[in-house]
Amino acid sequence: MVIVDATEQRVERSRDNATQKAHDAGKKKAHTRKTLIVVNEHGRLRYVSPSVPGAIHDLTLLRQSGAVEEIPSDLSLMADSGFQGLQTDTPERSVALPYKGSKAHPLTPAQKLHTAHLSRIRIVVENTLAAMKHFRILTDVFRHSLDLYDRIVVSIAGVVTRRADRRLADQRRPPNSGVRGTFILQRVYCHFIDSIACAKQVPLTTHGSRLRRRGSSAGTRQRASWARRRSHRS
User: Fold this and answer.
1) Bigger pLDDT: 104 or 25?
2) How far apart are CA 42 and CA 45, in angstroms?
3) Are strands 24-25 and 30-40 parallel, antiparallel or unpaired?
4) Which CATH number fits domain 2-172: 3.20.20.140, 1.20.1250.20, 3.30.420.10, 3.30.200.20?
5) Band of the pLDDT at 203, cuts 50, 70, 90?
């Protein structure tokens, strides 16, 4: 199963009228750039489309990108209500879309249950988009040349994919295989209350090594506390 979604980012208003009109997203009431992504059920990125002006509809972007043709035919597709009509474009595939209600035609309890179930599955693509938008260059108004936009998105997608691979590897690790993350041995120097200097080999997780790289005083105190506890145990 793969999950499809599109995301938009605000861009600076162009001085050219044609470019201005193309990027004017009426729903967002702003000038935006739109990108389509495809992830698997674990949230790992499988496809990132070239960006298009924000006025283009999500389904139109999916059709123009050719992403459906690159997805194996035995995999089912899942998307949000912005892709209504996808099941008509791909009748040979299994497509899961939420129901879209209105005041005149409210959703039935069964339809609401179906939509809620899809939302719980589809949350992985929202988490992937949130991970990409941890980078401010994809969150703030994009003020650089639009020629650089696709390269920046693909670069950040590569970083997010690498982090997802590490997270999935940690999840597949046996439960009693040791500390979480990379097991690192570092020499930590500490001073005990009796002013006797000692050196201990302390196993640190990735979290501990990250504190050390930052040079945080809180991290130094934490490592010293770990060393004291291990010395008392021994």
Assistant:
1) 104
2) 9
3) antiparallel
4) 3.30.420.10
5) very low
CA distance 155 to 132: 10
The token pair that represents 138 in the structure block: 């994809």
Query: Does pLDDT of 195 surpass 90?
Result: no
Question: Mean pLDDT across the stretch 33-58?
Answer: 93
> In Å, how far from its chain's centre is CA 7?
11
Ramachandran area for residue 184 (φ above 0: left; ψ -120 to 50: alpha; else beta):
beta
* Per-residue pLDDT at 158: 93
**What are the respective helix, strand and coil percentages of the chain, to the nearest 5?**
45, 20, 35
3-state secondary structure of 4: strand
Instruction: Give tens-digit pLDDT for 3-42.
Output: 999 999 999 888 877 887 778 777 667 899 999 999 999 9
The residue ranges of every structural domain in the chain are 2-172, 184-233
pLDDT at 115: 92
Strand blocks (E) in the chain:
2-10, 24-25, 30-40, 45-48, 52-53, 77-78, 95-96, 184-191, 197-204
Q: How many residues does the chain have?
A: 234
∠ CA 133-61-121 to the nearest 5 degrees?
A: 55
Query: What pTM did the predictor assign?
Result: 0.69
SS3 122: helix
Other beta carbons less than 10 A from residue 77's beta carbon: 22
φ, ψ of residue 118 to 5 degrees: the values are -65, -35
And the tokens for 141?
Answer: 């108004």
- Overall average pLDDT of the 44-70 stretch: 92
